């Protein structure tokens, strides 16, 4: 266990986001003062879930206007903070311009935050939300890792702007972070590398790609079958706990793989069948790899034939022992995360009986 230091404010970038919301909730419930830089603090609907959490908690929420790509934009919000959580980064697979929509926000945003930390004497620790995508690009990369499992020593070398651009953006952003961190001695960098994040959101209509994946499992898009696309997953609430541990445990250090389950998209869908299968077209069988290869390009920009070849029917394997031991984590069952996320999507009108 660990104690959240409430003596100084804590800054959380991307505070209205899927993962950040749960981090903010944990901080506020512990009694911390949270500085939340957002694009428009006056957009009451966008920050409603955060203000409601603050009103029910012993902590204090302070909103600031900031632009991820504007240099110096976070100076006011970071002033006086000892701990900074940088979670803001786009997660969208289907984009028109990867350089503009993924790489520039991820890299430039990270550089802006860490360079501001260099200018803010109060900052002692920065926790960066990176991704397992900075460790591997395709599931087949797992086989080339030490002992056939990804660990924190591995870097993604298979992605590019033309193949897995999102993964490429996360790799470049994390490398930029380590470069800045290693050139100074004022603050400590701890990096969180989650696999696919699932579980309920605090806002009504989150925009994370995870919800698009789950929606397809229940709206008929995968009625003919779901691919056995090897993947790791973690519940958003467990991931938030990992962030808090990384922010306040003295021994937290380096990169940390946060991944609870080694599974596939098809196997994830099967966790929904008992509870929802009678009312929603949950996939009943895996789609053959040859068929996934054939129709993949029609599904979306990220489902290329190369991606199908390197990910479908290929097992995801990652060593999560470092974070389990050093951050004191425990993980929810996969079924709990899937069912609660699916139910929330039903309740909010994002899924309807077919």
From TrEMBL:
Keywords: Oxidoreductase. Residues 10-246 form the NAD-dependent epimerase/dehydratase domain. Coiled coil: none annotated. GO terms for molecular function: oxidoreductase activity, acting on the CH-OH group of donors, NAD or NADP as acceptor. It holds the Pfam family Epimerase. The keyword Protease does not apply. The keyword Membrane does not apply. PANTHER family: NAD DEPENDENT EPIMERASE/DEHYDRATASE, VPS9 DOMAIN-CONTAINING PROTEIN. This is Dihydroflavonol-4-reductase. It comes from Actibacterium pelagium. The lineage of its organism: Bacteria, Pseudomonadati, Pseudomonadota, Alphaproteobacteria, Rhodobacterales.
